[in-house]
Amino acid sequence: MAAKLIDGKAFASRLRARVGEAARRFEAAAGRPAGLAVVLVGADPASEVYVGAKGKATREAGMASFEHRLPAETPEGELLALIERLNADPAVDGILVQLPLPKHMDEAAVIAAIDPGKDVDGFTTESAGRLATGLAGFVPCTPLGCLMLLKDHLGDLSGFDAVVIGRSNIVGKPMAQLLLAESCTVTVAHSRTRDLQSLVRRADIVVAAVGRAEMVKGDWLKPGATVIDVGINRLPPADGEAKARLVGDVDFASASEAAGAITPVPGGVGPMTIAVLLRNALVAAHIHAGLRLEEEL
Ligand code: NDP
């Protein structure tokens, strides 16, 4: 393997340690812990795992975790009323509503109900608008985590050609905005893009957020490119193995021969998402308490 491995797990654990220290200083100064509320509607197994992991990580960072689990058939009005209570609760600095929501709920209306000052997921139109116009605000956790890894590896990103594959509101679009703000030349590709391979071939930075197992091959890449693989795809167990295989949107075996650096799956972008969520919640807590963060997180 020629490429350097970008170790998101190690980076995330360092970030979580710094957040933990800052959370202790916050509690001493504010007289209360920073608080993060996580709301889960229904019993989607993957969402259960994410919400459990977020609650555990919040407590480990020395912050208060408020977990609300509602049955799948909860009327939308009840969820909106809960969000109103969390908006008004001074112990809650951040609110995260785990997506996807059950079909009978209007996701956009639910997200719009979150106080933008507590929108630690960065999904409200206020947060998206602030990101697009270059104002300070909450940035979605996964793309912000990707940016941290890129800057840690490459330093100044100015002038690089970047291709983001995927245009979701959660990953692709905010990723493109972040790279643009770093003065990259950004191309956003999606399912209607023509000749994706030749676009990828030009890119110094490739961020794959598609949801298609091992789609991006090594021979698509410009030699030496930096590759960030956001994808999480479960493949049936390989011959002789008991457990399902977790793979990214990039074909790791071939890409790691061509790339200069690459994130693995698992252990790359995945661990960054929760670490950045904790970071965003602590930033929100400082704003609410009128305190200044001593170090950039
Ligand atoms: P979405 O399904 O919302 O978006 C996928 C995007 O990929 C769409 O914009 C779609 O295009 C595009 N796409 C689909 N097929 C192709 C194709 N053949 N060529 C080019 N583009 C294509 O997914 P998300 O953004 O939510 O997530 C993407 C991946 O990242 C998933 O694997 C998900 O599990 C993972 N993920 C990982 C996280 C982490 O913490 N590591 C967090 C969030 C997501 P179009 O818009 O035209 O349909």
Describe the structure.
The mean pLDDT is 97. Helix 7 links the parallel strand 5 (161-165) and strand 6. The protein is 42% helix and 15% strand. It folds into two domains: 30-124, Rossmann fold; 141-269, NAD(P)-binding Rossmann-like Domain (Rossmann fold). It has ten helices and eleven strands. By secondary structure, the protein is α/β, with parallel strands linked by helices. The structure holds NADPH dihydro-nicotinamide-adenine-dinucleotide phosphate.
Bound molecules: NADPH dihydro-nicotinamide-adenine-dinucleotide phosphate
Q: CATH superfamily of the largest domain, called what?
A: NAD(P)-binding Rossmann-like Domain
CATH fold-level label of the largest domain: Rossmann fold
Secondary-structure class: alpha/beta
CA(first)-CA(last) distance? 32 Å
Inertia-based shape: globular
Largest sheet: 6 strands, parallel
Low-confidence stretches: none
Sequence of secondary-structure elements: EHEHEHEHHHEHEHEEEEHEH
User: How big is the Rg?
Assistant: 19 Å
Major sheet strand order: 1-11-8-7-5-6
Assembly state of the chains shown: single chain
Key attributes of the depicted protein:
Rossmann fold; 3-stranded parallel sheet; 297 residues; binds NADPH dihydro-nicotinamide-adenine-dinucleotide phosphate; 42% helix; 6-stranded parallel sheet
Describe how the helices and strands are arranged:
Layout (H helix, E strand, L loop, with lengths): L3 E2 L2 H23 L4 E7 L3 H16 L3 E7 L5 H13 L5 E4 L9 H6 L12 H9 L7 H14 L6 E5 L6 H10 L3 E5 L6 H6 L3 E4 L17 E4 L3 E3 L9 E3 L4 H7 L2 E2 L7 H20 L8
Parallel strand pairs: 1-11, 2-3, 2-4, 5-6, 5-7, 7-8, 8-11
Antiparallel strand pairs: 9-10
Helix pairs in contact: 1-10, 2-10, 6-7, 6-10
NADPH dihydro-nicotinamide-adenine-dinucleotide phosphate binds next to helix 10.
